[in-house]
Fold:
Amino acid sequence: MSATSINLAVIPGDGIGPEVIAEAVKVLEKAVAAEGVALELTNYKLGAQHWLETGETLPDEVLEDLRTRDAILFGAVGAAPGDTRIPSGIIEREMLLKLRFSLDHYVNLRPSRLYGTVGSPLANPGTIDFIVVREGTEGPYVGNGGTLRGGTPHEVATEVSLNTAHGVERVVRDAFRRANERPRKHVTLVHKHNVLVFAGHLWKRTVEAVALEFPEVTHDYLHIDAATIFMVTDPSRFDVIVTDNLFGDILTDLAAAITGGIGLAASGNINMDRTAPSMFEPVHGSAPDIAGQQKADPTAAILSAVLLLDHLGYTTAARKIEAAVVADVETRTGEPRSTAAIGDAIAAAL
Amino acid sequence: MSATSINLAVIPGDGIGPEVIAEAVKVLEKAVAAEGVALELTNYKLGAQHWLETGETLPDEVLEDLRTRDAILFGAVGAAPGDTRIPSGIIEREMLLKLRFSLDHYVNLRPSRLYGTVGSPLANPGTIDFIVVREGTEGPYVGNGGTLRGGTPHEVATEVSLNTAHGVERVVRDAFRRANERPRKHVTLVHKHNVLVFAGHLWKRTVEAVALEFPEVTHDYLHIDAATIFMVTDPSRFDVIVTDNLFGDILTDLAAAITGGIGLAASGNINMDRTAPSMFEPVHGSAPDIAGQQKADPTAAILSAVLLLDHLGYTTAARKIEAAVVADVETRTGEPRSTAAIGDAIAAAL
Ligand SMILES: CC(C)[C@H](C(=O)O)[C@@H](O)C(=O)O
Ligand SMILES: CC(C)[C@H](C(=O)O)[C@@H](O)C(=O)O
Structure:
């Protein structure tokens, strides 16, 4: 890339969001400066706190403004679990999911890697290095459903999972492309096609068809229940997992847990067609219980910035940050460090 | 119970099903004989092999005949994954799920317990002793969905999750009842109500309402993604989990994995209103790769027989088998034993 600046939207959000994003920006700024690239930051105040103050989730003008940026760096949103002033899930759906859907973030990319000494809860984790390509714009996440006779003994509540050939094919092709670039070149489709026949067969047929375009990539299939078993008994078997929005949500939290926790898990909500900016965010939430105390681990946010740089083509800067993170993580002793201290250490090692 | 015989339907099924069921019957027969109770067995040939021979999944007459039994002991069904003669999922849906739905098995009970020395993949599993009360007759398992423009680039596939106040309330109440009988008296609802709003809120509201009937039982809530994290980082936190059909499917395989594998995981598909016989089955599948080789562990099938006895009220016999299983499992050395050898050892210890 020859651009000399990155026009970056920053949504710190709630809870620990602002703290971890401050460190990610610190590291990002230093890494791109070394390449002669400037960061132009635009901050957006959004999230549960903003909703409490204004009643706004994601106004149309803000969404349009976000569209003009090169990428979005996102912290975390969500109020304290006990806070009943905020209708449950409203920020998640009308802000976070609205961003993913409106900006067509169809590839929800979540890498999982176990770094040297970092504590996995598994006794024998082995080598863990896989990516999950989670579909981001369809499935049970479309918000299609309803309630009939709500609050009565005759209530019926539905949730409709919508899956399209268009939506499934583009994310499956993305997974095969990524597998093709990896040494093991293997794709595992995870679904539950013995029960969810209609959606499951669309996914299965699509994988069979797209596989023909990638003769060097092998592929297999696992039901979601079996996939969770392998995740704790033989995670090394995975290279690239492709799956739907809900199964991907579940599997990536489990994947984060076995590779040392969501303090390290990064993600990208990527629009591969580049018709809108992509958004990069740690997998963790806003963790209100430790907010403002400099206790949060900014590593997941920093690794999300790495995915951001990769997406924008600044691969040199991306590799530098990644190496600094790996060096930092591999030498951790368990001694607690502040959020800023971790960010400083990684920035210093660039 | 004063009945002097149990009228038991046995569906050994495919793969390792017949081998593990033979051991469960052996143990069951001996345990109830000691109480002066006879087992009257009726064998049903059903499953993938039967489908290949006859084209039948579960004929109506067979279903009606099964209704006349006191309970059903079920092995496992399913052909080898590579066998393309059998349409994918047909046995699962038209036989196994048809049984669960037709016989109104609304409580899919799956206990998880880590026995002494049995290998969990977790480095520090702690004490694991919880039950999952999985809804068995609703949710995304209802088979409601369809395909529009199948096989074209404009295909749309849907899956509809159906949830009713009737269905949710009875299973939630069952979970609270069970929690009320346990020392820790705690229920955790697992769902994803921040995304699946309609179904999620029905579940949440129902838990709040039913909780009022059980003042001694505490309860909390976890999203399914967070629940998988706790399952590997702090499984001791769980006492009774209540959840929907699909989340329950996923969580119970993961729960089986962390407690030493699906070779030990038992389940009951229970009709608590006793309007039809309940069905007891190991969580594992038919494992065609090791079928007929006496390699399968019959423990899950034997523990399923324990759940069967508990359901029918033969608690003395149930506790005896359970104690024999625990003693056997806790002294396992990892030395392989045949399916029959394990069954014999447990029967001998009764
Ligand atoms: C907050 C929630 C809506 C979100 C999701 O379910 O996608 C989160 O769990 C995630 O994985 O990014
Ligand atoms: C075989 C399949 C339909 C079944 C299910 O999904 O319920 C199995 O996984 C189980 O957990 O009993």
In short: The radius of gyration of chain B is 20 Å. The domain at 120-259 of chain B is CATH 3.40.718.10 (Isopropylmalate Dehydrogenase). Chain B touches chain A through 66 residues (CB under 8 Å).
